[in-house]
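Standup notes
- DV: blocked on the single-chain target, sequence here:
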Amino acid sequence: MRICIVIPVYNEEKRIVRTIEDLKASLMKRYRKDLVLLFVCDGSTDNTEAIIKRYAKLHSQIRLVTERRRLGKGGAVIKGFNILCSKYHPYIVGFVDADSSVPGKEILKLLRHLERRNVDGVIASRYLKNSEVVGNLGMGRFIASRSYNALVRLLFNLDFTDTQCGAKFFKARALIPALKDVRLAGMSFDINLIYEIYRRDFSIKEVPVRYDVMLEGTKMRLPEQVPRMFISTIMYRLGRLNS
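- DV (later): unblocked, structure below
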């Protein structure tokens, strides 16, 4: 049973070693040759690519694709999905953020849930009863997160507490048909992906996780990105209603 995971990276030289070491101690140890970790280097201008290349020479599970122009998180993940699904024919496909905010042990929990339960996808949540957030999200980030969740619930009638947490996994049979309709490249990518799978009558389950707040090296710029995320989500929903 092959499991393939995309990790989109952009200028992550300060955090990528910690992330890879965490994945080595958890996923790579557990799944061995059944695992493919595909790092999509999304226009990085620092030493990220060189660091990943060094690890890829030592570990066959690690693969690297380099994109010189910026695709955005969603664009990088979709590029990775298309490569993995066409080349490796996985049973489970997913992605995790490059900052290891969802630790490897929590990713294992998500994968076990997907393997053992009768569901087609699992998404991590910071806001379920048994979730644990370690560190301070900050008031601005918390308000933006909860406001966006309220918007998603209103527009899409989805009963999820958290569509933005950076760890999501799906059975390939559910993911592949949806890929052609996933077009949002920015922070709205997650809801685009989730909704295209959900509207095809596949089941998605939220799972509580431990979430470690990682502020060092963060690319998040709330005043710029949050309005853009809200607008693109509304426009996506209007487009779906008219299609």
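- Follow-up: The chain has eight helices and nine strands.
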